[in-house]
Amino acid sequence: MPTSSSGIRIPCVFPGTPPLILLFLFCLAQFLDSFNNSALFSAIPALEVSMGMTESQSTWIISGFQLTFASFLLISGRISDVYNPKTAFVGGVSGLAVISLCAGFVNNTIPLIVLRALIGIASAMTIPSALTLLVNVFPDPLEQARAIGLFGGCGCAASVLGLMIGAMFVEWTSYHFVFWFVTIVATPAALACVFIIPPEISNTKANLEPAAAKWKTRSASHHSRAPIVALILFIFAATSGSTDGWASVMVLVPLIVSILMVIGFFYLETIIPVDKAAIPPRTWFYHNFSVLFGVALFPFLWWSTVFSIFTTLWQNVFEWPAISSAAHIPKWIILTGLSLCMVATALLALGGGKPEEYWPYIFPAFFVGSAGAMLTYTHTNIAIFQAAPSSMAGTVGAIFNGALQSGSAIGLAGVSSIETSVEARHGGSHEYSGRAAAFWFLFAIISIEIISVSIFYDRSTDHKPQPTHGDPGTPARRSTDSDEKLNDVNVTIIEKADLADLPV
């Protein structure tokens, strides 16, 4: 039986449950979450026609899922770390099946946006819990890196396959089956998880004392709602700015309030005891954690921007069928991925406004950009888990996936606003100038990401052992009285667990 760096025995093989089967179930949840995001891009033109949506309303169909998904990941991560992650995982997959079934029967804009937000909450329950279970099943660092890489790769695959599958449903049946497909896959998966996932992997010796942990989670959940409200206000302001004017009260007030709420949230995190913090402040000081968080804001933003712009352009302007639209679609590795995305984005900005520009510009850009985004996503995913203690797997998974969705939601709001503003002055939606401006905005973001990784990413820690919770030798450690109390709790639990293993 393998042991962790602290000598605690952690099971990785369970009678009757091969680890690869468990990994398949975890990857399936990741696939469904990414599918929920990408499949809707092919369906948006059909939804706009069927429900009479405006462009800002169609943005909320995507952002509604991303906002609740990103916002509830922190709470879900805490639940997975201190409660039973199996229960959270099964509950999330089951909720995904039920809510998606209901969404398939909806034909009105507002109820659909609400259900998309609820789907985001259900999806948020699956990712941190799946990562917590995955880390317990594969405690060996090499196997764990491979498993996390495969887990992230399923998200990349779903981002592409989701666009294709969604387009096939729209073309050959209706957009309703985009939702029902999730129900068809998630229902048997949830039933299988109940019987296949063994309860042993839900019990981690690194957890906090149950009573203190539950109180901590409840306390953290109250002020962790501030980022949720701030993101909603920011996206509302960004999507309204191009129509109501950036100087209007309806834009400036929510924009300023959202910025102040984010600043207030992070300031509050630094002054309250660590056992009440939604994100313990020391998390940001682990080697390379902050810069990896910044990189995580980008991959989904690239995919979302490209998909949202071209699915609408090809179906509404070029009048291509949905299926045709979809069919055209460690430090140096991360920098390589970002560089490929930069090249692809420049190609998309320079050409693509005419059907004959597809092969010289769009096709190579999709190929190069998708490869770059996949490299960036996968290796950032692996690196950020190695940057923090394994006992924080659920929280780290929540932060990482929250960054993916938040970056996409906020970025899409900015892209939509820039595109609409430029089109209003340069020929309308049938001209490519607004879309080109959106891609140059994306190009600027990639440039900032490359500069940040080049300067702030510390390669000297790439091959060091994964830090442990409360290790005073870790440079990221910021000790407080509350930290010491939590460490005492951990030591007591570990000592009791070790005594229980002694032979009688």
UniProtKB/TrEMBL annotation:
Biased segments, Basic and acidic residues type: 478-487
The organism's place on the tree of life at top rank: Eukaryota
Stored InterPro entries: MFS, MFS_dom, MFS_trans_sf
Protein name: Major facilitator superfamily domain-containing protein
Keyword annotations of the record: Membrane, Transmembrane, Transmembrane helix, Transport
Pfam families given in the database record: MFS_1 (PF07690)
TM regions (residue ranges): 12-32, 57-75, 87-106, 112-135, 147-169, 175-197, 224-240, 246-268, 289-312, 332-351, 358-377, 437-457
Keyword Transport: yes
Cellular compartment(s): Membrane
Residue span, Major facilitator superfamily (MFS) profile domain: 22-461
Record carries keyword Membrane: yes
Region named Disordered: 462-487
Source organism of the structure: Suillus fuscotomentosus
Cross-referenced PANTHER family: MAJOR FACILITATOR SUPERFAMILY MULTIDRUG TRANSPORTER MFSC
Any one Gene Ontology cellular component term annotated for this protein: membrane
Annotated membrane topology: Multi-pass membrane protein
SUPFAM superfamilies with a match to the protein in the record: MFS general substrate transporter (SSF103473)
Any GO molecular function: transmembrane transporter activity
